[in-house]
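Hi U.,

Before I forget, here's the chain from the pilot set. I'm dumping it here mostly so it's searchable later in email.
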Amino acid sequence: MSRPQDAKRPFFPFGNPFRMISPKGDKITPQLLSVLHDFEAALEERLKKLIPKSKDEILSLSWMTLAMQVLCESHNHIKTLITELELPVNDWDEKWIDVYLDISVKLLDVCVAFSSELSRLNQGHLLLQCALHNLGSSSSEQYIRACSSLDGWKQHIGSGNPRIEKCGSILDDLLGSLDLPKVKKSAKGKVLMQAMYGVKVQTVFVCSVFAVAFSGSTKKLSVLDVADVYSWASTFKGLQNLVNEEIRVRFSSGGFTVLNELEAVNSSVKELNPIIQGVVDTVETESLVRIVRELGRAAEKLSQGLDLLTKEVDSFFQVVLTGRDALLSNLRPGATVIDSIVGSNRDAQIVN
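Structure:
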């Protein structure tokens, strides 16, 4: 089995998080408790960043970009935690490594699916640009071309993506990874296990929201039941309830899409269609110019939002990939987690 090198092992299934509280095994020292407390406090702050000031922010590309940014931060923080714990690779059970590699592959698949969907949505921008160009003329022939481009845009955006459809089963597997049998008893292992549980919950939540937004179906919407023993549980539950409730409301309204920026473009398209198709006999030039201008602004905002989100998804892909690489490096004779982390940090700096 190939074993990648991980510097920030985003998904280390170190066991059932609820068994972490068991008094058996090595006791967690005050120093380790302090390290864990700092990690969970930082995790909670990242979750708070995702609580929108308004429900209108939910499922906007800017909110999704922020969600991916804080997810990368959490995964990178795990790398720092591993450095602080100085947990050598020879203390890791073979099962931890095997399951991690399996989960990280699934995460990479999810990233590839998200990237393909973002690329597909961005391709529609060419059709919008073509329509806007033709709307710059008052000729009926140009209007016909504009109408064709706008119809093509709606068909393109409305078509499905097989890769996104497969995300459902992958997310189910990731959900199953949250509760795994305990493999080892050690104070450092318990701390890392509890920290990893928080990151896994955050990751499954964010990926679930993305899958729902891209698929147009709430079937992939996950509801994670986190025990109150975790200091960040209340914040997470509040965030999850707020986001999931808004998602269900939007789907029940039966709109063209649940993504804010896509819906803004579609609203302008709906307003333009009857005009350029000649359904509306008289329309003031001023009103037409206004609608075309609004469509142009909405299309540009959509394109910019997709570009920014694509960069963040790519960054997360790199986090997971370098994590697998670091783990492979750890498996070399005499290697330690810290050796690999230092190496992957250097590689990441070169990439950036």
